[in-house]
Amino acid sequence: RVTFRNEGFPFSGSLGQFAPKGALWLFLSTITLGIYVPWYLRNIIGYVTENLSWNGKKAAFLSEPGSLLRTMLLLVYLPAVVIALIFVLVYQPWANEPGAAAILFAICGTILMIVLMLNFAYSYLRWLVNFEFTGYRVRYTAEKSSTVRFFAGQIVLSIITLGIYAPAAWVKCYRFVLS
User: Are 60 and 21 in contact (CB under 8 A)?
Assistant: First the structure.
């Protein structure tokens, strides 16, 4: 049970209320090839905040789906299309001739995607943690460079240990975000 100042957070929503809406939002996200995902996330967070209260007061989620969509387009969709095109046009001819160039291309592509995803993770955190509650603004305010460096370090440690460190990395990232 989560409490704040010895007061719980009662939730008034139900699965019966949420399931039809959630199914529709998931369907829209699927048929739009992910374009609707920011609205899907906004609707889920909105449903939770509308049905969750503390001491009779409710929070308001302030982020707009359009800002997350722009971030997704610039840091996820557009790079994925560009990397796919480069893969088809540049890497594909080398597919039958394994060598240093093919390995270098694979490594560079992987590093580029990790860098982009780290930047997206920071932008997503900034979008996700943006509430107003009883006159207070709750936001993710850590600097981008420190967040990206910390997450990158946790990824490197997880890779070096072949995933053994990954659960600890998740806990450390969670603590980093909340501290």
Answer: no
From the number of C-beta atoms within 10 Å of its C-beta (0-12, 13-18, 19+), residue 75 rates as buried
SS3 (DSSP) at 130: strand
Residue 23: DSSP 8-state = H
What would the mean pLDDT of 153-166 be, rounded to a whole number? 95
Q: Which residue has the tokens 């982009």?
A: 116
Mean residue pLDDT of the chain comes to 90
Locus of tokens 């920071």? 122
Find out whether 37 and 29 touch, Cβ atoms under 8 Å: yes
CA–CA distance, 61 with 45 (Å, rounded to integer): 7
Distance of alpha carbon 151 from alpha carbon 71, whole angstroms: 19
Residues 36-49, mean pLDDT to the nearest whole number: 95
Cα separation, 121 vs 40, in Å, equals 17
Q: What percent of the chain has pLDDT over 90?
A: 66
With CA atoms as reference, report the closest residue to 140 among 124, 125, 158.
Answer: 125
Name residue 148's amino acid. V
Q: What are phi and psi of 61, to 5 degrees?
A: -85, 125
Other C-beta atoms lying within 10 Å of the C-beta of residue 120 = 17
